[in-house]
Design brief:
Blueprint lengths: L4 E9 L2 E6 L2 E7 L1 H10 L5 E5 L2 H4 L5 H8 L6 E4 L5 H10 L3 E4 L1 H5 L2 H10 L4 E9 L5 E5 L4 E6 H10 L4 E6 L11 H10 L4 E4 L5 H9 L5 E4 L1 H8 L15 H5 L11 H10 L9
Parallel strand pairs: 1-4, 1-12, 4-5, 5-6, 6-7, 7-10, 10-11, 11-12
Antiparallel strand pairs: 1-2, 2-3, 7-8, 8-9
Helix pairs in contact: 9-12
Length: 284
């Protein structure tokens, strides 16, 4: 069995690392560089940086953060948010990213996946799918951080994404994201069983046991995790409480944790996976 990758996700708004629930209500947690460095030194296999308001404001502004991060870290970095053209992708790769994550632009123009994968290689192109479960049990794709409905059913979309040349899919349960209630195993399994490319599960991770289920039941190839890691290390880091820019800093300055989130570490997750016969890269 291939190694299951553990990938912290860093949602960025302006200069700050933020975290919300259902991709909304963003709270500032600190400087993304501080968290990225901690994760790199403590066993992360990759990192995902996502500008969470880039598509909304039609911008992509992570170049400086990525450039600073890439100089000192030697694991793959995936960057998403507001990438709408070949030139946008070229700029983030030049800044130090190894992969790009596309969502809004490819929903609106699916052929962009083919164009980008031919230009940069399939292994560079990750398609993010933000899914919300409907009353009839089906899942539909949304864009702009779960704000805008597209009418696109996610399983058929995942299959088309693969046909067009994407190398990986990140499947996000907007319903679960940030809640700490556990991954949507049904959603993950639907996508994983429908495609042959790696599927990265995102949204709602609650415990090492739930992460194990995302692999054994959901058939995920990788897990991207935010809240349970971020809140675990927020107090350990020398966080800049004077974080400026965009986002609500009240939560950060209060010194409180988000009560329903049961925190854990990369080391604990990997240990639990290995105890259950799941391969993952050892922590040095």
């Amino acid at each position: 069995m291939h190694n299951i990758r553990i990938i912290p996700r860093l949602d960025i708004k302006g200069p700050n690392l933020v975290k919300g629930i259902h991709l909304e209500g963003l709270r500032v947690l600190g400087r993304p560089e501080d968290f990225a460095k901690f994760y790199y030194e403590n066993g992360a296999d990759e990192l995902i940086f996502q500008d969470v308001v880039a598509s909304l404001y039609e911008r992509n502004s992570l170049h400086e953060i990525i450039s600073r991060t890439a100089k000192n870290m030697f694991i793959p970095l995936t960057v998403g948010g507001g990438l709408r053209s070949i030139d946008d992708i070229k700029q983030v790769l030049r800044a130090g990213a190894d992969k790009v994550s596309l969502n809004t632009a490819v929903i609106r123009n699916p052929n962009f996946i083919k164009e980008a994968s031919l230009k940069f290689g399939s292994s560079t192109i990750v398609v993010a799918i933000e899914a919300i479960k409907q009353h009839d049990g089906r899942y539909f794709a949304f864009v702009d951080n779960g704000r805008e409905e597209t009418g696109v059913e996610v399983v058929s979309w995942a299959q088309k994404v693969e046909e067009l040349g994407a190398g990986e899919i990140v499947i996000t349960s907007v319903d679960k994201e940030g809640t700490g209630e556990g991954y949507d195993l049904e959603l993950i399994k639907l996508i994983s069983d429908a495609v042959g490319i790696p599927v990265i599960a995102h949204g709602g991770a609650s415990s090492p046991a739930n992460m194990k289920d995302a692999v054994t039941i959901g058939h995920a190839d990788a897990l991207t995790i935010a809240s349970v890691f971020h809140y675990h290390i927020a107090e350990q880091l020398s966080v800049n409480n004077d974080s400026k820019g965009e986002g609500n800093t009240t939560f950060l300055k209060s010194g409180r944790n988000f009560g329903i989130i049961h925190t854990t570490s990369i080391e604990e997750v990997k240990e639990h996976l290995r105890e259950n016969g799941i391969s993952c890269r050892p922590i040095k």
